[in-house]
């Protein structure tokens, strides 16, 4: 039994179903990556896990518990953290305040978690008093991930974290994500840069028009001729 | 219930209410309410075009009504020749300097390159122009306002039949709306609302303070009428015959006594005059309703609603949103301007001090929302109901207070206070109605009909 | 030379007396109103047309409590009794604002209605509060100031300095400024330092992310209304103390207050304060007759003939409006880069 499982998810935003019978799962201490062509419903699938979608069928299990009825906020309180693709930092607030807001639900001492985030992203420590809106794209992305980590989540979900950043920054970010994984957090990631993402993935899900096409370890998928041809550009 | 049946039902109920007022209070009161209902209907149809068709939040409805009213006065009042002779030249000089300044400023704006130099030149041109204008203006106004200030003290108008002003008032309001549109359209809805609110406040300030133009708070009374005067009617032969014919003879067959006849004449004259207005107003309402309905169901109307429902998508499809908005804003304002001229005609006087935003802007909003935004018949029924409640709330509240006051001592200060503040109940009532409709029946009494292409 | 410097001093005193002091106190009043409007805008995303009436309500509540205190023999001594009544009036107004939100606005929040629906609802609230205030207290002008009136009297100032121009400083003007500064400092401390304050800023900045961070939107909204109502009451009372209480004036304050909020940058409390002073100074400068001032400065034969007034006082709306339009055309985000509506 995986730690977080979306089972046979079917639904959309009120209109037609965007995802159909779609199953996505991730274990603690592993990275699962969702890839697929544009409009395949990758982000939608992730939002379904977070409860931001009207599910017609299927259920979401967290640590064996059915959380399908919970609101996104309640799921966040249960240990799921989410980094949206856009507008993922508070641009008018300082880096430190962004992290504080990430820990909003926590009533205990957050200094230790904040230190951990600063260890992971040292640049943020030097810019802690700076307003997030003034940072570069890569640094903002670090703030966004840092903010999500502040709840001490058991699951971290990232929606295209490398969209719009340079290849160097992307490698750097992936390294950090691997580091996060080593702390025992389950990581679920939607990625446009499929090849690089599958490289670091323990588990890969290839979605096409809202349905599972291939599901296997990252390694196997990268080796699969058909996946390579259709989705990785050869 | 279908919309048609609902419309028939609501108009029947409304008619019944007016009949009840006719029998209960008097026919003069009932017709007075009806006439203002009709004028309000024109106003709310105008606003409905802006809000219901196009989704524009115009918080400056009052500006259009006021300029319509001003036009009615300017069209109908006889020119004050002495004022023209003492101040006319300077008025033209002021206008000329205004035009020249605008022209020069535009020239500078177009010909010079963007930068500090242009800004300075612009400021210089405007300042110089302002000084000239100010110079002529002060001479003109002091001369004009000195001409028999107790009676005139302003330029007067054109001395044309006042009914001409209904059209002219619409045109004037359209021109003003064009100007407002230049400044405020293209802004997002909240900015647009605030900007139009501001313009309407300025408009009223102008009317209150530019005595040479509008006599300011001294008001212009005794405007001519498009319908006969009561006094004339009472003296005319055909009218007394008509009254005799209607009232018939006394029960014993003899003619009515002189006293009874006089009373009947007075009452009938009042009713007759109001009926004449009713016919005129009803004609305007029907004409505008005809145009509005056709426009709403035309491709133009469908496009308007498409823009309203999704501005971004409409813009992406190549529709020029701002210029469509300008169109509908101007047309709607023109309709409201017509109603403003009608109102001043009915009042027979122009009183700048009577324009307050709650009555002339936000009450119209209540009408449109209650009636059903996007539905022309809805706007009309909304106007009828709102105006009826607005008028009848006051006597009702007074009646209520008098019932409470039975229990209070004569000397109780609360008694006095209640008597004084009872009229303000209608504000609370209006707010309550608006909030309740918005909450429980957001589409209004007659909801917008889904356009055929859905 | 000495003579000219006296003239210069006279001119300065004149301008301080008629422009500087009134503009600072009026600006403070506008600023307090505008901060409320801008906070509501930042958090609830709509222009609250009922804000002026909320100020009127707050001032009315203060007047009633002041009268009650006075009847009990409680007075503020040298200060206006209204200051003692103020906290209680704030409580009442805040309760009202929260009740209005719960009964009217919260519905549209739950249903995620368009911002303009909120604006229409606020028009309904405006009507109701407008009527309510008039029903409770009537429409007459009420002067509820007591305590010392002047800190500096014009006559005494003339005697003291030997200048021909007098300088009068009303206690209410100083109170206005001091209380406004205290209120604003308290607000900024709250927004910058407290958990709830930061949550408000986060919510205003990015609603979705705030929700994802577990910030409770209803609590943020509740606090916003309490603050907006408190500031509205304070602004309304200070305006009423400084001039007098007339229910009708508060509607007309709406325009300069909106202008101040937009000029400062929507959703930016600091901007709203700057905006308040910008609007107040422009309004008073543009409608002040500079004739006497210039007479002190210019040689006798060059003194201006007219009043040298840009606009008559009745056109002060035009000034707020002009500033509004200029800002919208030149820098729509406002001085402090606020949200664009």
Provide an overview of this structure.
The complex is a heterotrimer of chains A (234), B (454) and C (341). Chain A has 234 residues and is α/β, with parallel strands linked by helices. Chain A contains ten helices and ten strands. Chain B is mainly α and 454 residues long. Chain B folds into two domains: 3-79 and 156-440, ABC transporter involved in vitamin B12 uptake, BtuC (Orthogonal Bundle); 80-155. In chain B, helix 2 packs across helix 16 and helix 15 (357-371) packs parallel to helix 18. Chain C is an all-alpha fold and 341 residues long. Helix content of chain C is 72%, strand content 1%. Chain C contains 13 helices and two strands; from the N terminus they run ααααβαβαααααααα. The mean pLDDT of chain C is 89. Classes of the chains: A alpha/beta (234), B mainly alpha (454), C mainly alpha (341). Chains in contact: A-C, B-C. The interface between B and C is large, with 46 and 46 residues.
Element layout with pairings:
The complex is a heterotrimer of chains A (234), B (454) and C (341).
Chain A: E1 4-12, E2 19-26, E3 31-35, H1 42-50, E4 54-62, E5 65-66, H2 72-77, E6 80-83, H3 95-102, H4 111-120, H5 122-126, H6 137-149, E7 155-159, H7 167-182, E8 186-190, H8 194-199, E9 203-208, E10 211-216, H9 218-223, H10 225-231
Helix pairs in contact in A: 3-6
Chain B: H1 3-24, H2 27-53, H3 61-76, H4 81-111, H5 116-145, H6 164-184, H7 189-209, H8 211-214, H9 230-235, H10 237-247, H11 258-297, H12 299-309, H13 311-316, H14 321-347, H15 357-371, H16 376-405, H17 413-421, H18 425-440
Helix pairs in contact in B: 1-2, 1-16, 2-11, 2-14, 2-15, 2-16, 3-6, 3-7, 3-14, 4-5, 6-14, 10-11, 11-12, 15-16, 15-18, 16-18
Chain C: H1 2-44, H2 51-72, H3 82-110, H4 115-137, E1 150-152, H5 154-161, E2 169-170, H6 171-193, H7 195-205, H8 207-212, H9 217-242, H10 249-264, H11 269-286, H12 291-297, H13 316-330
Antiparallel strand pairs in C: 1-2
């Amino acid at each position: 039994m995986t730690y977080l499982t979306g089972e046979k998810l079917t639904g959309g935003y009120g209109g037609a179903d965007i995802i159909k019978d779609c199953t996505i799962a991730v274990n603690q201490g592993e990275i699962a990556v969702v890839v697929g062509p544009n409009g395949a419903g990758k982000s939608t699938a992730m939002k379904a896990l977070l409860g931001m979608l009207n599910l017609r069928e299927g259920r979401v299990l967290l640590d064996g518990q059915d959380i399908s009825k919970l609101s996104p906020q309640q799921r966040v309180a249960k240990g799921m953290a989410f980094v949206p693709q856009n507008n993922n930092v508070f641009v008018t607030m300082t880096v430190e305040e962004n992290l504080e807001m990430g820990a909003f639900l926590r009533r205990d001492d957050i200094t230790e978690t904040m230190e951990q985030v600063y260890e992971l992203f040292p640049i943020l420590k030097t810019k802690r008093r700076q307003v997030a809106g003034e940072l570069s794209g890569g640094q903002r992305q670090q703030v966004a991930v840092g903010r999500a980590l502040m709840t001490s989540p058991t699951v971290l979900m990232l929606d295209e974290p490398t969209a719009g950043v340079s290849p160097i920054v992307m490698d750097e970010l992936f390294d950090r994500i691997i580091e996060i994984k080593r702390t025992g957090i389950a990581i679920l990631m939607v990625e446009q840069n499929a090849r690089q993402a599958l490289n670091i993935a323990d588990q890969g899900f290839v979605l096409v028009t809202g349905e599972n096409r291939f599901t296997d370890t990252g390694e196997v998928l990268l080796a699969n001729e058909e996946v390579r041809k259709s989705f990785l550009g050869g | 219930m279908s919309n048609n049946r609902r419309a028939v039902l609501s108009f029947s109920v409304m008619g019944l209410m007016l009949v009840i007022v006719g029998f209960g209070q008097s026919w003069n009161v009932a017709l007075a309410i009806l006439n203002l209902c009709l004028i309000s209907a024109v106003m709310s149809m105008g606003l409905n075009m802006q809000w219901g068709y196009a989704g524009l939040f115009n918080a400056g409805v009052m500006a259009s009504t006021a300029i319509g009213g001003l036009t009615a006065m300017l069209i109908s009042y006889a020119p004050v020749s002495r004022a023209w002779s003492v101040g006319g030249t300077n008025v033209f000089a002021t206008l000329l300097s205004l035009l020249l300044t605008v022209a020069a400023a535009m020239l500078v704006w177009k010909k010079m390159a963007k930068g500090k130099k242009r800004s300075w030149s612009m400021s210089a041109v405007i300042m110089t122009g302002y000084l000239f204008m100010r110079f002529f203006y002060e001479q003109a106004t002091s001369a004009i306002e000195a001409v028999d200030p107790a009676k005139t003290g302003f330029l007067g108008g054109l001395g044309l039949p006042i009914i001409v002003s209904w059209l002219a008032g619409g045109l004037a309001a359209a021109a003003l709306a064009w100007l407002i549109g230049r400044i405020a359209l293209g802004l997002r809805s909240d900015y647009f609302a605030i900007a139009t609110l501001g313009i309407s406040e300025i408009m009223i300030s102008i009317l209150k303070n530019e005595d040479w133009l509008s006599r300011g708070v001294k008001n212009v009374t005794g405007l001519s009428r498009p319908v006969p005067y009561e006094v004339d009617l009472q003296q005319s032969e055909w009218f007394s015959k008509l009254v005799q014919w209607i009232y018939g003879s006394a029960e014993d067959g003899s003619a009515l006594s002189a006293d009874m006849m006089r009373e009947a004449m007075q009452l009938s004259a009042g009713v007759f005059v109001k009926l004449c207005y009713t016919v005129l107003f009803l004609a305007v309402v029907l004409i505008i309703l005809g145009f509005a309905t056709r426009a709403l169901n035309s491709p133009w109307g469908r496009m308007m609603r498409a823009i309203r429902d999704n501005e971004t998508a409409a813009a992406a499809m190549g529709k020029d949103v701002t210029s469509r908005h300008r169109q509908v804003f101007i047309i709607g304002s023109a309709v409201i301007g017509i109603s403003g001229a009608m109102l001043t005609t009915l009042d027979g006087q122009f009183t700048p001090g009577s324009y307050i935003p709650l009555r002339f802007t936000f009450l119209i909003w209540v009408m449109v929302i209650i009636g059903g935004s996007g539905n022309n018949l809805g706007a009309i029924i909304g106007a009828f109901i709102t105006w009826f409640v607005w008028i009848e709330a006051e006597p009702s509240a007074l009646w209520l207070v008098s019932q409470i006051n039975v229990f209070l001592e004569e000397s109780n200060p609360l008694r006095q206070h209640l008597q004084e503040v009872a009229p303000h109940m209608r504000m609370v009532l209006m707010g309550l109605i608006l909030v309740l409709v918005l909450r429980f029946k957001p589409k209004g009494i007659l909801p917008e009909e889904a356009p055929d292409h859905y | 030379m000495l003579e000219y410097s006296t003239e210069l001093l006279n001119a300065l005193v004149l301008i301080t007396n008629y422009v500087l002091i009134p503009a600072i106190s009026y600006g403070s009043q506008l600023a307090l109103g505008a901060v409320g409007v801008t906070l509501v805008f930042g958090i609830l995303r709509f222009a609250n047309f009922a804000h002026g009436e909320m100020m009127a309500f707050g001032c009315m509540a203060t007047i009633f409590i002041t009268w009650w205190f006075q009847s009990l023999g409680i007075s503020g001594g040298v200060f206006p009794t209204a200051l003692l009544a103020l906290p209680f009036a704030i409580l009442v107004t805040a309760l009202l604002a929260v009740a209005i939100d719960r009964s009217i606005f919260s519905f549209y929040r739950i249903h995620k209605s368009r911002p303009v629906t909120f604006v229409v609802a606020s028009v309904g609230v405006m009507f109701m509060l407008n009527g309510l205030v008039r029903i409770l207290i009537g429409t007459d002008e009420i002067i509820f100031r007591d305590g010392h009136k002047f800190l500096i009297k014009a006559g005494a100032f003339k005697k003291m300095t030997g200048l021909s121009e007098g300088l009068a400083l009303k206690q209410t003007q100083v109170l206005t400024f001091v209380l406004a500064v205290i209120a604003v400092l308290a607000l900024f401390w709250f927004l910058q330092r407290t958990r709830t304050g930061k949550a408000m800023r986060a919510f205003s900045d990015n609603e979705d992310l705030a929700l994802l961070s577990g910030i409770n939107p209803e609590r943020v909204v509740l606090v916003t209304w309490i603050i907006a109502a408190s500031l509205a009451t304070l602004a309304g009372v200070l305006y009423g103390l400084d001039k007098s209480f007339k229910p009708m004036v508060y509607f007309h304050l709406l325009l300069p207050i909106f202008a101040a909020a937009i000029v400062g940058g929507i959703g930016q409390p600091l901007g709203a304060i700057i905006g308040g002073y910008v609007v107040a100074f422009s309004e008073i400068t543009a409608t002040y007759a500079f004739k006497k001032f210039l007479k002190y400065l210019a040689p006798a034969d060059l003194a201006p003939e007219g009043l040298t007034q840009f606009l008559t006082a009745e056109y002060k709306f035009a000034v707020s409006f002009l500033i509004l339009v200029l800002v919208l055309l030149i820098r729509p985000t406002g001085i402090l880069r606020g949200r664009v509506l």
